[in-house]
């Protein structure tokens, strides 16, 4: 007598549920409805959303990689606390690492990959004003500018620093006026142009100034960090 293995089907079912749970929690955190340091109880989230604990657990693991929650053995998940000194250190590292990654990607990105980066820049422009959607589109743009197949170590560094600074970017973007979205998106266009024209120095300079501007703007919002 044969049996049917449904484990693959179950996994496919859990994945979209986990994404749905992650988006729900992400929005709650970005909107400040779940405060930094607040425990995130798997049972309560599962009950609220009508799902099992498995997609909630997977969603929390995803949000931990994004830097939005911290998970500790025996104590569960908590919304990440905003630490000013950590934020400044991470942004200064990004100012050095991402220009290098961008410069090294010049000549390695395919036309398809350049088109994808441009599409993410378009997406960010289309959601300007919706800071939750813009934060995600902005992240996708930056990561798409790295030739990940050729630069695996730099890619991991860039993605890691983006994940760990994700929680800090909401402090900045929540303060944005329409002209701020326009300014940052102009940088995106200049970055794409530098990639297409293979202008290494230009690409590095634009990216460094782009990240530095964000750091200085966040530094002026220190009162919004946790004490």
Automatic annotation (TrEMBL):
Domain named HTH gntR-type: residues: 15-82
PROSITE patterns the record matches: HTH_GNTR (PS50949)
InterPro entries listed in its UniProt record: GntR_C, TF_FadR/GntR_C, Tscrpt_reg_HTH_GntR, WH-like_DNA-bd_sf, WH_DNA-bd_sf
Keywords from the named record: DNA-binding, Transcription, Transcription regulation
Pfam families: FCD, GntR
Protein name: GntR family transcriptional regulator
Species annotation: Actinoallomurus acaciae
């Amino acid at each position: 007598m044969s049996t049917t293995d449904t484990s693959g089907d179950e996994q496919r079912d859990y994945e979209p549920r986990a994404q749905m749970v992650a988006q729900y929690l992400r929005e709650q955190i970005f909107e400040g409805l779940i405060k930094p340091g607040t425990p995130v109880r798997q049972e309560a989230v599962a009950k609220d959303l009508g799902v099992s604990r498995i997609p909630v657990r997977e969603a929390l693991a995803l949000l931990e990689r994004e830097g939005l929650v911290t998970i500790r053995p025996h104590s569960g998940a908590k919304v990440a606390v905003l630490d000013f000194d950590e934020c400044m250190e991470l942004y200064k590292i990004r100012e050095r690492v991402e220009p290098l990654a961008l410069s090294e990607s010049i000549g390695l990105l395919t036309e398809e990959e350049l088109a994808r980066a441009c599409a993410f820049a378009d997406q960010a422009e289309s959601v300007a004003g919706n800071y939750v959607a813009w934060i995600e589109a902005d992240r996708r743009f930056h990561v798409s500018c790295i030739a990940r197949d050729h630069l695996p170590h730099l890619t991991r560094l860039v993605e890691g620093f983006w994940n760990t600074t994700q929680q800090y970017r909401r402090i900045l973007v929540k303060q944005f006026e329409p002209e701020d979205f326009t300014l940052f998106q102009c940088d995106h266009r200049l970055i794409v142009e530098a990639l297409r024209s293979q202008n290494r120095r230009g690409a590095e300079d634009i990216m460094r100034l782009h990240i530095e501007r964000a750091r200085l703007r966040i530094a002026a919002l220190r009162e919004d960090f946790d004490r």
